[in-house]
Each structure stands twice: as structure tokens, then as C-alpha cells.
Amino acid sequence: MTGESELGWLPVLEAGPRPVYLKIVDALADARSSGRLQPGDRLPPQRELARLLGVDLTTVTRAFSEARRRNLIDATAGRGTFVTPGEPEEPILDLSMNIPPAPAGLNLPALIRTGVEGLLKRSSAEALLSYHPGPGSPVERAVGSSWLGEAGDRLPVDRVVVGSGAQALLTAIVLSQTREGDTIFADALTYPGLIALAEATRRKLAPVRSDGEGMRPGDLEEATRRYGARVLYLNPTLQNPTASIMPEGRRRELARMADKLELIIVEDDPYSRLLAAPPPSFLNLAPARTFHVATLAKCISPFLRTAFLAAPDPQAAERIAAAIRGTTMMAPPLMTGLACEWLRSGLAAEITAAVRAEAQARQEIARNILSKGLAATDAGLHLWYSLKSELRSAELADIARRRGLAISPAEEFAIGAELANGFRLALGATPNRERLKEGLQSLASILSGSPGSSRPKV
Predict the structure, then answer these.
(1) What is the DSSP letter of 344?
(2) Fewest CB atoms less than 10 Å from the CB: which of 134, 147, 266, 348?
(3) Is it the case that residue 399 has pLDDT exceeding 50?
């Protein structure tokens, strides 16, 4: 490859508030994706490129550094900077991983460090280093009872099970309540962990239609006659991926229908504590047929792989415990011990409140930048963006990936033949609000078809 001037390629920087150095990186990624730049092509010296673009040298240096981090280019001493032959590495900004943002005003790593140190000083080493098989220790189950109870009510401890995260508890429910080949009802767009679990355990998933308020009771009754399923999976509060909140009236209608059809309800509830006043849970509305799972990972941190389950009765809790012994064995004693310490002291509630506030601030940023297409929500860790054009969400996700952004297309959440066109944006993985703004502004430019995106408006 000869010099850059012979290629005739010069970055075309799109308009907008996105930092100039990232616009250069975007232009480089687009040129490589479209074939205007090929592996092995040499880029001009940084000083020359700065002169041609009319920017300062530090801007180009920062752009080249970011492009190298993303495996778009590489430099060889004495020879210059060349386009790499491989695929770009991890995205510059992750809008796909649905985790809590760092809580504003709290140093979570420091709290974890001091919490573990204090736990080791106060607790019996034998207890922390031993197996805790089954439903959890009496102390852990008692703490879980308080956490799961609504309006100050505590559940009977013998209905509470402790697990190493929500997925472990969902696995235990599926294994204890269904058999291979059985069908489980869920929303047409549902939690990917359930899809993976059904595939791994050879269960089937059947979609039930929804409207603006959530799953429709009449369609659930029709689906039950068609499939004969006994288990209904619901994620009614800040649903993943649509971020919808099922109103109380619809919850009561579904609870009555589940009772009529004698369905088991699996209520996956990782997000309700991110609302100041969530609607009543199915655990409250239909306690005799609901398995309710609540994890700390989404309202505090994935560091705490601790979740609590409320079963309809002690016998069901024992069946869950048996399934846990056959799969994950137990919740890690050290992490569970720390989680219980934080729940008892009130620190868990303080961290959750800080996460809730930071999540609300990030939701506002997203609404300001992406006003068209967003589902109405002002809380939670994620949001849903509906696409109105012929461009499918998987295609958009590929375009975004080449621009250094990771998003989650509808295909990752879909069961059944009918597929809504849209994507989920997770707002918590970016390290701070400024980085989130950069990512959302870049996404907005793709969606609007602005110069440099080379894509139709959506």
C-alpha cells in the first residue's frame, strides 16, 4: 500500500456534539467496514492528518490510540500505521450488559472491601469455610424473609430459599416443577436467561400475546387450551427487555386467570426495588401458586451473586432445595454472609437508593438524546427502542458494533414466530454519565442516518 494521499481517503467527520477524536475513529471503522480501507493500508502520519482535518495533533493522537485499542489499526516503528486484518475487539461503549450503574456518592469497591474484612473478623471461619447445602442457613433464610416481604410483612422462613443468583433459582424451579419436553408460557420478548435455560433443560417456550398493559389473560387461557402447559413465567416490573411495568389491574386479572387454569406462576423480580412505589407482586396477589425470585445483582451489584426465593409452601421449598443440591449445591457462604450483613444493617437499602437515583439520571439522559422510539419509562437499568423502518434490529446491532457500540437486538429475546422490531439499551455498564452520553449520541447519529453513518433513517 502506498501513502494515504494516493488512497484518496480522508475522514468525513459527522456533525453533532460527539468528541472529534471519536468521530475520526467512527470514520475509520466505517471505511474499513465498507472496503474503502483494506487490511494493510497505511494511514498518513498523525501530524499530516491533523493538518488535513484542521484539528490539533493531540486529537488525532487520541483517535489513533482509541483505534488501536479497538484493533482497527496497528503501528510499526519506522514504517507507519496500518489497517489491521482482524475484527474489531470489544466495543468502545457497552450498552448491552444490564448491570447496575456505580451508585452515586458511594464507593462500592471500598464498601465491599471493608465489608468482607469485617465479616471475617466477626464470623466463625468454620461457618464461612463450610458447605451450606440446601435452602440456606436459618439466619440467611430469615434475612431473605424480611427482604422478600412487602409492607413490612415477613414470610414464614420455611418458604424461603437462598441461591447463588436468580439463574440458579430459576433453574431449580424449572427442574422441580417441569419435566423434559414440558412447555413454559412467557412473553413473546422475554429474558434471554430463560431461553437459554429452556434449551439446556430441553423444555419448550410458548409465547403469549401482550398489549400495552402486559400479557393478556384471554390469550393465556387460549394458549393453555392449545399447549396444556402448567408453568407461567412473568417479569412484570420493568420487564426485560421492554422495560414495561404491568399495572395492578392486569396483575389481578392474570392472578385470577392463573388460579382458574391452575397454573404455577414464576415471578422473576430483579428490578422492582428500582421503583419508589412498585405495584403489588404476584407473591402478594397469588401466594399459593407463585414462586417469587428476587436477586441483589440488579439493584446492588453482580458482585453479590445472592438471590432469595419465596415458594408457595414449605414442601415446594424443599423440592427447590433438592434441585439446588443437584446443580449449584449452595450459595457461596462468604458472599451470602456479606449480603445478609448489608441487608440487616440497612446498607443494602442505602446502596439500592443510590443505584435508583443514578439509574433515573441516566434514563433522563437517554430520553433527551433519543426522544423518538423510546418506550415510556423513567426508571430502571434499561429501555426499549422500537424501530419503525424495514431495517431489522440485528442489522442495526451489527452497524452499531462496527461503530464501537454494543446493543441488544430483539432477536436475543424472541420466542415464537412473531418478532417485534426493536432493541434494548442497557444504561448501567458505562463507567459514567459522560461516556453514556457519547455512546447514545453516536447511536442517535446512526438512527438519524447522519453523515458518516451511511445508513437509512429509522
Answers:
(1) H
(2) 134
(3) yes
